[in-house]
What we know:
The chain is of the alpha/beta class.
Amino acid sequence: MKTIVYAHPYEGSLNHAILTRLTAYFDSTDQPYHVIDLYRDGFDPRYSKEELRLFSRGETPYQLVKDYQQVIAQSDELIFISPIWWYHLPAELKGFFDKVMLKGFAYAEDPDLRGLLHNIRHATVITTATMTKAELINDAGDPIQSNLIAQTFPGIGIAPQTAHWIHLGEANTTTDAVRKQFLTDLPELYLHGQA
């Protein structure tokens, strides 16, 4: 099963159109999936004192986090759909990694860091931003390929070579025709990364 982690608050956004296009494609090809909609679920990316107290034990007081972990444990693929704001993933998605990818679930320290999510065979990151992919890589610290895919993913057991990044840059200034073509091409772009 695929798990889509969606991080955008507005249903009229391009990110929501991406989610709609991708889930329609999965429906039409009978591919099972589950959507984790962080904003719809009311996910709070902030750590509470209680969470920090339990963090070193890999525990959480929140049922929503436990539910997310259960869905991920039953998945073989993760797909992230998110904007890039101020050169980074939004707080909602950063908090998802902070609060859901806990010790004992996503990684172990015995004594070296070892990722545990070996059930995840593929990961896809789909982003939109005002910057192009080249600008994000060359001028903004490469938040997705170098940071998320090459650093964070291995730390939780997802091999970087099984992950790929799809990006639509200049999303705010490009034409509707370009946006529509991106959505039309999205299944092909997704499949290209699975090969």
